[in-house]
Amino acid sequence: MVLLSLLLAPASGISAANPGLDPGIGNVPQGLQTDQDYSRSYGAHSVTNTFVTSRQVSCYRPEVPLAANNGPNDGYTGESSCPGATTGEDTGAAAPYATQVGSKPPYPASEPKLVTDHSESDIRVDPLNPLHIIGSSKWFTAAEGYNHLLGFYESWDGGRTWPTMGHIPGYEGWTDNTDPVGAFDAYGNYYEAILPYQFYYDKTSHKKYEPGNEPNPAVVNEAVSVAVRPHGATGVSDWITTHNGHPDYVFTTDAGFGQEPDKQWIAIDRNETLPNGSANPNYNRIYVMYVNFNGNGSKPYVQTAIAREDGSHSDWTPQVLLPTANATNNNTYLYPHIDPAGVVYTSLINYVGAQGGCCVDILMDYSSDGGVTWIGPSLVAGNVHVPPLTGPGYANTTFEDGIEETFAVGNHLSSQGHYPIYLAYESKSSGFGNILLTASYDQGATWTFPIQVNDNATSTVDEFQPNLAVAPDGTVSVNFYDRRLACPSGHDAVAAGLALDRVNPNYSGSLPPYGAADYCIHASVQFYSATLAPNGNNIRLTQHNWDPQLNAPNRSCPCNPLDTFIGDYFGNDFAGSIDYATFISTYDDGTNPQHYQQQVVAAVHIP
Question: What kind and span of H or E run contains 289?
Answer without folding.
Answer: strand 285-293
